[in-house]
Amino acid sequence: MQEDLFDGLHESLSGQIALDDVFEAYYECRKNKRRTVNSLAFELDFERELIRLWREINSGKYKVSRSIAFVVKYPVQREVFAADFRDRIVHHLVISRLNGLFEKEFICDSYSCRDGKGTLYGVRRIRSKIEECSAGYTRDCYILKLDIRSFFMSIDKNILYRMLFEFITEKYHAADKYILLRLVKQIVYHNPEDNCVIKGKLSDWNGLPYHKSLFWSSRYCGLPIGNLTSQIFANFYLNRLDKYVTEELQIKYYGRYVDDFVLIHEDKQVLLAAWKKIGAFLQAQLKLSLHPQKFYLQHYSKGVKFIGAVIKPNRVYIGNRSKNNLYRKIFSMLPRMAQSVGQVLGNLEKFAAGVNSYIGFMRHYNTYNLRLRILQMLDDTFLGEVSELEPNAAKFAIDKNFCKAGQKKRQLRKQRQYRRFQHQKQVKGERDGFV
């Protein structure tokens, strides 16, 4: 059986996906997933598993495995389907072939799941667009912010696959085109709610609206939140909207993050007309609808909430939801630190690194007072003996004198442990000798 598995490993087969590409997709996939159960199980004999997966893909025998379904509570209640690890490898394999082509089609102002064009980039772009449209905040302009209702659950699989099929057929010219099309079709039309593994309790779904769950969606609607392909394909799906707004409606100042998008114009009536046209376009072309309660049209001086930030003239704040999440994450780490001095010393550096990751994020915005308030609260928590306030509230810094004292205490503790071990060893030896 082993000889059959490895037989023909280095064959050059025209029109097939190379084994090296499967290995590259595996290494990319495992970067942030090495501690998951599925990843560890796969890694026990990953070479054999990758060869088997490679053969299944090229022979057409590959089938999507069971997904794990669960509900997350923060920042909002949301249903997630986590694909099996081997399926994640296939997702990375597919995206590695298509992402470069997608990037050539996407406009600069879609900010989701793109290298170098994340949330911070999006906030800065929208801020610069508001400033440009208002001529440096010297003339009137208006901001229209819209949202698509139940976006991921409403994506029409037939429309999506037809778009992908036409795009790949036209733009992708490698020999493995037909295998790629077959994989894309399997991914798009897979229904993860069938035969999935439920993680947690069924009561976790209580309060989740039906239109936000794949269990209640049409068989030909909805992509699972949590998969790489879902994020990229969703961005591709709305690329039509981006082109419609910027090219046909001639809206110069525009930006989109997933299903939230912003239009900026000096004439309020132009934005109102665009709102109606966009609603009709989404319904006719993509079978999507605008959220009726998430409509925002205001003068630029009122600011706008976008990608977790509040953008106002000459300043950008963190939104209340983002602020509360940061508070929750930072102070949820405190109970994990034990109360005894010895254990606190062991965990303090890790705690400081976690806090500083959030402080570093906040420094990109006008958050001096917020950072100072957090650091002062932490300073009070440790009675001023552990930390010292840095200038400009730049980071959570451990007091140098405390570090020296802590190092001495750790050394003393190790010496005591060593002497105790030696004493126990000696006692055990004397007892065994006596017997």
How would you describe the overall organization of this protein?
The chain has about 425 residues and is α+β, with helices and mostly antiparallel strands. The chain has 16 helices and twelve strands. A hairpin with a 5-residue loop joins strand 1 and strand 2. The termini are far apart. The N terminus is likely disordered.
In brief, what are we looking at here?
The chain is α+β, with helices and mostly antiparallel strands and 435 residues long. Helix content is 52%, strand content 11%. The strands form four sheets. Strands 5-6-3-7 form a four-stranded antiparallel sheet, with helices on both faces.
Write the layout of secondary structure elements.
Elements (H helix, E strand, L loop, with lengths): L1 H5 L12 H11 L7 H7 L2 H14 L8 E5 L5 E5 L2 H21 L13 H15 L8 E6 L3 H4 L2 H15 L5 H13 L7 E2 L29 H10 L1 H10 L4 E5 L2 E6 L2 H19 L9 E4 L4 E3 L2 E4 L2 E4 L1 H13 L8 H22 L5 H14 L5 E3 L6 E3 L1 H35 L1
Parallel strand pairs: 1-4
Antiparallel strand pairs: 1-2, 3-6, 3-7, 5-6, 8-9, 9-10, 11-12
Helix pairs in contact: 2-4, 2-5, 5-10, 8-9
